Amino acid sequence: MASLRIAHTYDVGSFAAMKALLESEGIQVLDIAIGGHLAIAGADQGYYIEVIADHKLRACRILRDYDLGKYILGSDM
User: Fold this and answer.
1) Which of 70, 60, 74 lies closest to 21, judged by CA?
2) Which of 19, 22, 25, 71 could form a cystine bridge with 7, CB 3.0-4.6 A?
3) Domains, the chain, with CATH or none
């Protein structure tokens, strides 16, 4: 199954909260963490929420419902 990155944060606490919320709603979250030490080399840093593609819309709706919409990637969701 394909997966999609739907949200991003630089804060591990926000990442943990989003992950726990989505999992409590039955959405499997794939852990994606990119360390800050990679930023020195020009790579991205922070934490991504990645879900199975079929759960994208539902996951984005849940994040918005709990005032976490600012972390959602893109504007088409």
Assistant:
1) 60
2) 71
3) 3-71 (3.30.70.1530)
